[in-house]
Amino acid sequence: MSDSTSPRTALRVLVYSDDVNTRQRVILALGRRPRSDLPELEYVEVATEPVVLQNMDSGLIDLAILDGEAVPAGGMGIAKQLKDEIYHCPPVLVLTGRPQDAWLATWSRAEAAVSHPIDPIQLAESVIALLRARVPATT
């Protein structure tokens, strides 16, 4: 069921964490389609920094969700590197260790931050806002 006026059928969301459980919590919180007026989401799960960089360099990612608590490469450092190195970098959402760490996400130039433990509603609202800025609503 693709919309003929839409240039693509899915938005690609990169989810980076060294913890498979964190990646799964993000994906389960967002689901396949967090809003009916946006295309479905297609997830690219990534566990290492080199694979994040490779996927982001491809130009095929619409949004990156990076775990700031990942080791050995934290999502905030990766976010800053992406913003410094990729022309027209897609939006980045950083998962912070606690709400007080939101200022670090600002330093990393991430467009949004959500703290652990992941609140599905807050995460969905942030993701929807970032994707709407990139993709016009279909209805």
Sequence of secondary-structure elements: EHEHEHEHEH
The helix count comes to: 5
Structural category: alpha/beta
**CATH superfamily heading:** Response regulator
Strand content: 15-25%
Distance between the termini: 15 Å
Q: Gyration radius, to the nearest Å?
A: 14 Å
- Count of DSSP E strands? 5
Q: In terms of quaternary structure, what is this?
A: single chain
**Quick check: average pLDDT?**
91
CATH class membership: Alpha Beta
Largest sheet: 5 strands, parallel
Poorly predicted runs are: 1-6
Order of adjacent strands in the largest pleated sheet: 2-1-3-4-5
How many domains, as an integer? 1
Q: What name does the CATH topology carry?
A: Rossmann fold
Shape: globular
CATH architecture tag = 3-Layer(aba) Sandwich
Give a description of the structure.
- Helix content is 37%, strand content 20%.
- It is an alpha/beta fold and 139 residues long.
- It has one domain (10-125): Response regulator (Rossmann fold, 3-Layer(aba) Sandwich), CATH 3.40.50.
- The protein has a five-stranded parallel β-sheet, with helices on both faces.
- Strand 1, helix 1 and strand 2 (40-46) form a beta-alpha-beta unit.
- Helix 1 packs across helix 5.
- The radius of gyration is 14 Å and the shape is globular.
- It starts with 9 loop residues before the first strand and ends in a 5-residue tail after the last helix.
